[in-house]
Amino acid sequence: MPFHGKNIILAISGGIAAYKSVELVSLFKKLGANVYCVLSESAENFVAPLSLEVMSKNKVYTKQDKHTIEANKAYIDHIELAKTADLILLAPATANTISKLACGISDDLIFDIILASQAPIAIAPAMNTNMWAHKVIQKNLSFLIDELNYHIIPPSTGDLACGVQGIGRLAELNDILKHSAYVLETQITKMDKDDIVGKSLDLANKNIIISSGGTREFIDPVRFIGNTSSGEMGFALAQEALYRGANVILVSTVDYEKDPIKAAILEHPNLVKLRANTSEEMRMAIEANFDDSVDVLIMSAAVADFRPKEYSDSKIKKEKNPDNSTINLELTENIDIVKHVAGNKLPHQVIIGFSLETENLLENASKKLIDKNLDMIVANNQEALGNYQSQISIIYPSTDKTQDLEIVELELQDKLENAKSILDHLNLILKARNEKNTDIISG
Predict the structure, then answer these.
(1) Is there a smaller number of Cβ atoms within 10 Å at the N or the C end of the chain?
(2) Is 162 a catalytic residue?
(3) How many angstroms separate the CA atoms of 14 and 21, rounded?
């Protein structure tokens, strides 16, 4: 990591996660960085300046230094720190701090340094789940990214100090190190929102429908034809899309409320959750919401290809067939939801399908991509069903026309990591389509 000899200003605001700053300083020092810590007034309630001073081997600056100028110095502290910084990292960043940054308020030494510096700024938010999801905070974050070119290190999901579970935890320290290294490696002073690793809100204002889980095709009131899909992939896609600023309609067969962390994410103000059991219910829910305001449909649900031709209103009893141990069940084909919707999509709309195959994975998935008029297809095998990890291949028409299809084969990894990759490639498609439309308009 490119920290050796770099001057890092670690600005610490007043959240419970401030206690992690001591370990963060230690990690930076081990990697060769020179660290200067700046505490907001409220941060002093959570971490002792002396601990940071011992760990950093440098003076720790607090609010009292804002208006203090020593006679034997030819410079003002915050201006000198601003000039010498290679990176300013604000971790943790509270909702209050983020809002002040967006408004240009400078009532603490931290803000003086940030406003006076030309160094890249990285911000690691940490706050309550509902505070993170609040429209004001998201709007302020969007302003910091789009207008001030700040780099946002998204918070993680888990147990919060306020007693709830959900998004809002300070990012893992190793993730903060990785993001900080990326900023330094690329020597970013003006960052492109679409190109920065970990940048949130790159799907801001996009309306996305995501299906998840396995459908159930009922034979009678208690029996059904189904599959072992857990809905993990669909939820991971919805979670990641929300983190990136999208408005999401999640059409799912799964009761996610039983998982406290997932239940917290379901409270996100940009999420609408619709429940469906059968293929027909899922089709009706998707088609009812798939209007011209929708930008993307991601069909990650494992939808049954067939359903029983006849449904029994009462439980089928063994006694009705005493002389034969077999029963004949006649099936009829379900409507192919993604193919049906893709056949009526508008030019700006992107349709992503999934293909689960037991043989000839890439060949069969590529054929479906073309036959169903999709913009992308995600191919995986039967081992993905019911597991938290999967090995996927992402296939879509080449955006630069250098070849017919782009095929990206990923290693076995958690489905949330797969979701990030899928949305990264979705962004490439959206960006290429936007550039094409711009060329048409300008031409």
Answers:
(1) C
(2) yes
(3) 11
State which of 136, 155, 186 marks the end of a domain. Answer: 186
Tokens 């067969």 belong to residue: 253
- Which position among 22, 162, 385, 416 bears the catalytic label? 162
Task: State the pLDDT at residue 262.
Answer: 74
Regarding whether 59 and 168 lie in a shared domain, the answer is yes
Cβ atoms < 10 Å from Cβ of 298: 29
**Which of 142-146, 179-183, 266-270, 435-439 has the highest mean predicted lDDT (pLDDT)?**
142-146
Instruction: Output the pLDDT for position 276.
Output: 95
Q: How many other C-beta atoms can be found within 10 angstroms of the C-beta atom of residue 441?
A: 7
Question: Does pTM top 0.85 for this prediction?
Answer: no
Let me know whether 107 and 246 are in one domain.
Answer: no
Which region among 129-143, 197-211, 398-412 has the lowest average model confidence (pLDDT)?
197-211
Domain holding 12: CATH number? Answer: 3.40.50.1950
pLDDT score, position 260: 61
Is 14 part of a structural domain of the chain?
yes
- Indicate the length of the chain as a whole number: 443
Instruction: Name the residue range of residue 227's domain.
Output: 207-315+326-437
